From TrEMBL:
Residues 1-35, 71-114 form the Kringle domain. GO terms for molecular function: endopeptidase activity; signaling receptor binding. Keywords: Disulfide bond, Kringle. One of its GO terms (biological process) is proteolysis. GO terms for cellular component: extracellular space. It comes from the Eukaryota. This is LPA isoform 3. Disulfide bonds join 7-30. InterPro entries: Kringle, Kringle-like, Kringle_CS, Kringle_sf, Serine_protease_kringle.
Length: 114
């Protein structure tokens, strides 16, 4: 679910995202790649229309998590349950239960299965 500040996709949009801790940047997609069905190679997520009333996302680029293990998601990432919490531009994700610096309605209470 929407725990801590981990990347998730409760809406769904093109890929896992998060609200950022930067007061000037409301949300961004997370720095994750989509898992390929062929031999574990990763591909960039599809381009999609951003959420209503949210800023446009940045380009995605594959990266590895601090442990050196690359995380990826399937499809649009609605089932992603990893612990990655960094946006495509390197910003730390805001906790889903927090309303600071960005107030939002995507909380664990309203999206228990996200």
């Amino acid at each position: 679910g929407l725990i801590r500040n981990y990347c998730r996709n409760p809406d769904p949009v093109a890929a896992p995202y998060c609200y950022t801790t930067d007061p000037n940047v409301r949300w961004e997609y997370c720095n994750l790649t989509r898992c390929s069905d062929a031999e574990g190679t990763a591909v960039a997520p599809p381009t999609a229309t951003p959420l209503p009333s949210l800023e446009a996302p940045s380009e995605q680029a594959p990266t590895e998590q601090r442990s050196g293990v690359q995380e990826c998601y399937h499809g649009n990432g609605q089932s992603y349950r990893g612990t990655y919490f960094i946006s495509v531009t390197g910003r730390t994700c805001q906790a889903w239960s927090s309303m600071t610096p960005h107030s939002h309605s995507r909380t664990p209470k309203y999206y228990p299965n996200a």
